[in-house]
Automatic annotation (TrEMBL):
It comes from Candidatus Woesebacteria bacterium RIFCSPHIGHO2_01_FULL_40_22. This is Four helix bundle protein. It holds the Pfam family 23S_rRNA_IVP. InterPro entries: 23S_rRNA-intervening_sequence, 23S_rRNA_IVS_sf. CDD domains: 23S_rRNA_IVP_like (cd16377). Gene3D superfamilies: 23S rRNA-intervening sequence (1.20.1440.60). It comes from the Bacteria.
Amino acid sequence: MDDFVHFIYKITKNYPKEELYGSTNQLRRASLSVILNYIEGYARRRPATQLTFFETAYGSLKESSYLLDFSKDEGWLYINDYDSAKKLVDEIGAMLWTEIKNLDNSIKLSKL
């Protein structure tokens, strides 16, 4: 996740200056939100609270993914940077989804 945030910060340095407070800022905040919500969730004791933060992290990842698509369509990204970023999104998404499903199943089992 850390690599993803640093990569996003690197590639958005080349975005148009008029997008500094628009797509640039939004993509940076969304990508940072992924790892920050994951860390905060991991630090929580209650599984239901952890799940909430992990789901928020997953939502921020989906937001980041859309903003990457939008940026590519606007011509702000090199295709190799887009492909690299989307590969990271897929890897992080798979990891987060597995954690979410496992935690959700654990919560359901504890209620039996």
